[in-house]
Design a protein that fits this description.
- This protein has helices at 6-16, 22-27, 29-43, 118-132, 148-161, 165-175, 180-190, 211-216, 225-241, 249-258, 260-265, 274-288; strands spanning 49-54, 57-72, 75-86, 89-90, 94-102, 105-106.
- The protein is an alpha+beta fold and 290 residues long.
- Strands 1, 2, 3, 4, 5 and 6 form a six-stranded antiparallel beta sheet that branches.
- The radius of gyration is 21 Å and the shape is elongated.
- It has two domains: 6-132, no CATH class; 148-288, Orthogonal Bundle (Lysozyme).
């Protein structure tokens, strides 16, 4: 997943102008720490990769990835790596680990050619890569095609419940500027388009709103299909806009399922709950099949 922000681009270029080799890191530690503090605190998420070419060295392709966020001795820590591709040949990556001392202040990065967190880190990193690969943008589009599994389910539900569900979903999606296929995918997983269903924990309606969530998004009757759709779509948009998620669909889905607090607790990544990880995989599978 390439990072598009120009401010981030500039910072990464300055950062990796001095971290390609450990000796260069040591000589420019001050500037390195300023940039790392900015990147690690809120910009680069687990599973994201920044790739660019420096105008002064056009033959070199530079890459940066954060592949693991974890807790150690009560501190939030992050492991990342950088590597250079020169003339099509990938050079050995350099790994770094640092823990946060306070907001925008991190420990000095310990850069090394050895990765102490490779086994668990790769698993989490690959999860993000897999669920994000070839995923459409979450923004609203008027011209879209529902995957056959979603189309068959919604058509059946429209007849059974005598509701224009596709029209209603499109209206809610447009209002919150979200891709209608994403909303269909969430509804398929949450309720299979049944506006009358409730879970054992009390989540109800098409988008399975919990009582407190329904109240938060202004839904007085979760069994009212229009209210439920508007409220659920509004809540998903809210999750996408939250700090640390910022448009990352898998993280927004994880927050929708397990709560934003759990996403934040586990370092802004999908929490290690089997139910939540399967939930994210399933919805992303529907969404990507369009």
């Amino acid at each position: 997943m390439n990072i598009q922000s120009m401010s981030l681009f500039v910072l990464i270029v300055s950062l990796f102008g001095c971290v390609a080799l450990k000796t260069k890191v040591d000589t420019k530690a001050g500037r390195l720490m300023d940039d790392v503090n900015f990147l690690l605190d809120e910009k680069l998420l687990d599973g994201e990769i920044a790739t660019w070419r420096d105008k002064d060295e056009p033959k070199l392709e530079r890459n940066l990835a954060v592949f693991l966020t974890f807790s150690e001795n009560g501190k939030l820590c992050r492991a990342c790596y950088t590597f250079i591709v020169e003339n099509g040949r990938e050079k050995k990556p350099v790994f770094g680990t640092t823990c946060r001392l306070s907001k925008r202040r991190w420990q000095r990065v310990n850069w090394s050619f050895r990765d102490a967190y490779q086994a668990p880190a790769r698993k989490r990193f690959e999860f993000f890569q897999e669920v994000n690969r070839n995923a459409p943008e979450p923004v609203y589009v008027s011209d879209y095609r529902l995957p056959s599994i979603l189309l068959k389910s919604v058509q059946k539900a429209e007849i059974k419940h005598e509701l224009p569900l596709r029209e209603m979903i499109n209206k809610a999606s447009k209002k919150e500027a979200l891709n209608p296929v994403l909303i269909h995918s969430v509804i398929k997983q949450e309720s299979n388009y049944n506006p009358k269903v409730c879970s054992h924990v009390g989540a109800c309606g098409l988008m399975q709103l919990m009582p407190l969530t329904a109240k938060e998004v202004g839904v007085s009757d979760p069994f009212n299909p229009s209210q439920n759709l508007m409220g659920g779509t509004r809540y998903l948009r809210k999750m996408l806009n939250r700090r640390g998620i910022k448009g990352n669909i898998p993280l927004a889905l994880a927050a929708y399922n397990a709560g934003y607090g759990n996403v934040k607790k586990y370092g802004y990544q999908v929490p290690p709950f089997k139910e939540t990880q399967n939930y994210v995989k399933k919805i992303m599978g529907y969404f990507k099949s369009q």
